[in-house]
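Sanity check

After download, print the first record. It should look like this:
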Amino acid sequence: MSSTSAGTITIGGDLTVNRLGFGAMRITGPGIWGDPPDPAAARRLLQRAIELDVNFIDTADSYGPQVSERLVAEALYPYPDGLVIATKGGIVRPSADQWVRDGRPVHLRRACLASLKRLKLQRIDLYQFHAIDPAVPLEDSLGEIARLQAEGFIRHVGVSNFDADELARARAIVEVVSVQNRYNVSDRSSDPVLAICERDGLAFIPWSPLSQAPRDDRAGARAALESWAARREVSFSQAATAWLLARSPAMLPIPGTSSIEHLQDNSLAVTLRFTPQEILEIG
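Expected structure tokens:
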């Protein structure tokens, strides 16, 4: 039960991580708002992830807000060698039920510098633009992130919630090394982006990996994966994560949880393998 069994992926040419990471969104309070009911348990969860050889942790300043980043630092600083912490900026949380895009350069600079302080870092290994703000030109937003990179605050730049055309525009502004989009067995709308990542050596980081809201055109694929999991006597979470790993070598799944039990359950996905016929049956 080790993330090393998932193999590795290289991000930006110089960051090699195990291909099963951890998404730190759900270590916050209910609704991704405020502190968790038991902060000590959240810190133990993060420490257990490291014990399972997870060396890629994904967070964002909007998770909590600010809570997830703070807990990551409290639990893991000083960070072990080889640990890559990725965070995101570009979404603000005025209230528990609001996720508001803010791509203004002044906000992104302030957000990046605040993330550095909370995470106790001099430089963020992977800083991801969380989502395009329709009120701000993409070129302005990513232009500021490129300036932060040039100033040494960011090692590599990623984007999130981008389609293929938006990714092309982004890559004309700054070198992009990763894309984080919704992707699972039921929702493969980002297949064109995944194909670009495969072709050009970018990491694809799927969010919502458990396919909790199947699309009508992929309901059969989810049912087939559920059947596969039942035959193997494994959880659907394990099956969904294993399927992502099998789907593409560019894939870097980051299943998240607030429970050590679920973390360990998810980690067992690295032991599962699909036959070529099973992949065809799932579609």
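If your output differs, re-run the checksum step. Summary of this record's structure: The mean pLDDT is 95.
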